[in-house]
Amino acid sequence: MLVLFETAAGYAMFKLLNDKKLKNVDNIYEEFSTAEKAQESLELVAFKKFKSTAEAVDSACALHEGKMNKTLKKFLKGKVAESEQLAVGDAKLGNLIKEKLDVPCVHSPAVAELMRSIRSHIDSLLDEHKTELNAMNLAVAHSLGRYKVKFNPEKIDTMIVQAVSLLDDLDKELNNYVMRCREWYGWHFPELGKLIQDHQAFAKVIKTVGMRQNMINTDLSGILPEELEAKVKEEAEISMGTDISDLDLIHISGLCDQIIELSQYRAQLFDYLKNRMTALAPNLTCLLGELVGARLISHAGSLVSLAKAPASTVQILGAEKALFRALKTKKDTPKYGLIYHAQLITQAPAKLKGKVREV
């Protein structure tokens, strides 16, 4: 039996001198436990050295995808006699070799164990090519890594999935920070939280003013409208809040800095998401809006998966828990998922909402 083994330096073909050793899978590792035993059982028949790193990477990628490139095809031609079998490490590759070259291939647990044993003693089995093998291992590993992580234009929707997930995380984080800030500063100036609803403006006012006693002499025209500024200053004079120390204010101001920075970054991220959605899925963006469209893509996994999904699946995306709960309890299934938040549906009359969601 012949054995095809792929290395970073080239293709190697060994001849197994005793086929009976493959009968018992458990004993194979013992038969090849040392380099001397491996050399006694295997004989190098042929070795095809790669001309360059590019050829090595091309061959490695082809094998990874279960394909047979020209280099391997030329190497195998005329090497295997009709009466012999070829042991391969990949069943898919074996089927391909059998189909194109009419070479009978074998892939089994015993062959897999044999490949493992060869790999552990490859330096001694390819002693003449040891230097080339060690040098090519590192080069091919780096090149193959770059190949796998290279930018793929078909996967640009991954950026949208990550961006919308980060946007949702930022919203949760911001909400926690703002609620904590309102509650914390509320002990000092409780009326301010009711007057200013905008979170970023609320944080900026605290950062600018500090103690409520400074409110009267502070210009807030760059943050608040004139009428609201007057109300805030009026409430500051008659506030029922308690006094706080300078140390308390330092920590509250630090929290306000975090809120302002996160709010600004969220705005930048939303602009980025809007531009990405407009470029990648303009029709979806026009129909449902940037956020709903991005969440649908994220939930489906990719734009292609979303496009292939039937309408009945799209309309309940995001409501899977409610769907399975309804099926389990034998109650009415949900009619909407993420698509419910689309402006097109929320603005539709109640009688037409069902038809709009199906369209």
From TrEMBL:
Any one Gene Ontology cellular component term annotated for this protein: small-subunit processome
Similarity field: Belongs to the NOP5/NOP56 family.
Localization (cell): Nucleus, Nucleolus
Coiled-coil blocks: none
Entry annotated with the keyword Glycosyltransferase: no
Gene Ontology biological process: ribosome biogenesis
Keywords: Nucleus, Ribosome biogenesis
Name of the featured protein: Nop domain-containing protein
InterPro entries recorded: Nop56/Nop58, NOP58/56_N, Nop_C, Nop_dom, Nop_dom_sf, NOSIC
Principal cellular location given in the protein's record: nucleus
Species whose genome carries this gene: Nippostrongylus brasiliensis
Molecular function GO labels: snoRNA binding
Pfam families tied to this protein: Nop, NOP5NT
Nop domain boundaries: 280-359
